Amino acid sequence: MRKSALRGVLAALAAVSVFASVTAEGGAASAEPTPPGAAVPVAISVSAASSGHVGAGFAGFSYEKDRVGAGMFDAGDTNLVHLFRLLGPSVLRIGGNLVDIVNWNGAGTGGSSGEIAPADVTKLAAFVRATGWKVLYGINLKTNTPANAAAEARFAAAALGGSLLGFEVGNEPNFYRTESAYETSYNSYVAAIRAQVPGAVFDGPGQGDSTSWVSAFGAHEKNNALTDLSTHLYIGKNTTATIDGMLASNTSGRLPDAEAAMGKAQSADGIAQWRMTEANSYYHGGAAGVSDVEAASLWSLEFLAGVAAHRGSGVNFHGGTSTQFPLAYSPIAFSGLMPTGVQGVYYGELLWSLAGAGALHAASVSGGSGVTAWAVGANVFVTNKGAEPITATVTLPASAAAASEYVLTAPSLTSTAITIAGSGVGASGAFTPTPRPVAVSGTKVVVSVLATSAALVVTR
């Protein structure tokens, strides 16, 4: 459970090398092929070097803002509270397309998905207090005024108190504004909101599937209450969804390119941090059989590592329910407003969270196919996207006294029967893992990782 998470030192190595993916070269000509189903030997060496920091709240959620008025966030829904707590404390981003459609009605009675009223925000505040999470609170830009935005921000800041992490102005404004026009709007909203909430801070620009504004926006707004650069990212449209494409997306193409661009802008502009405030596999809700299965668990785990490698502060995986289209990729599955269980991405987030906060260390990998590795503090991740099980000899950066292994696995990449250390996660948040003890000899640990699975080796 979350209590098992060990907190260590976190650090990230160079972006391109934080996790290594190695394809077997076949070895010497005289080497005999590995029999089908036999474990392939793999050597992993974790670097002692580190840079950057990944803190608590790295693996979070993003939900459409109309879910606030709909009543999804209810402290009385103990199942949902427990499902959040299992990953937390973390960050809930409230926004999505619906943030620019539903609007604040300070005189509203609440309980309507068509608007946000004081009672709705009060209910949200009670929910996040029950979970221990913090909120990135989205404000309507497209159909709003600075004065109305400021009135909402004032109430939200008072209701959420210490649970408020910051505000977002609009959602993916590159689809309806130019960069300069968005900056003008951002400045007017910030001025109005800070007149009502003097300590308010913001993230931005929150483009959709683009980082083209981020450098200029950060340079211009870094002294105007901007504490986080942000962007939203998906692999592509759900009509193009494939498991092979999803699993390959973390090593080349738009995902690592965008992560590198965000890290570069954050460093150049001197902004405190950057965050992927909305992301998931394929936009328009993902695809059943791709975005909700074991393959998505492995994809989300490696996606988190890629963001950390480029000095990101975390990922808010989009989910919940939507009036726009079914969200097959949602980490938590729902029937109406009630949670019915968890899906692929949730398991990737959960395994990540079990490592706790600390330094992200790169690792070199030799042998195997589709094997990646990295460490969070003294705890080592190994993913095996290959078709054969592996036996990994891991060289730690420092000696350990003992270790245990949490294996994230399922019968196949397309399976929804996912477990971590022998336990699934129930709709109530019940999770009873039984990690396997593994022998340690100084800096050496030997672990087994099934095909199409991942493992977390927790050392102490």
Automatic annotation (TrEMBL):
Q: Which UniProt keywords are listed?
A: Signal
First and last residue of the signal peptide:
1-20
Cite the InterPro entries for this sequence.
GH, GH79_Enzymes, Glyco_hydro_b
- Report the superkingdom from the record: Bacteria
Does the record carry Coiled coil as a key word? no
- Tell me what this protein is called: Uncharacterized protein
This chain's source organism reads Solihabitans fulvus
Q: What is the lineage of its organism?
A: Bacteria, Bacillati, Actinomycetota, Actinomycetes, Pseudonocardiales
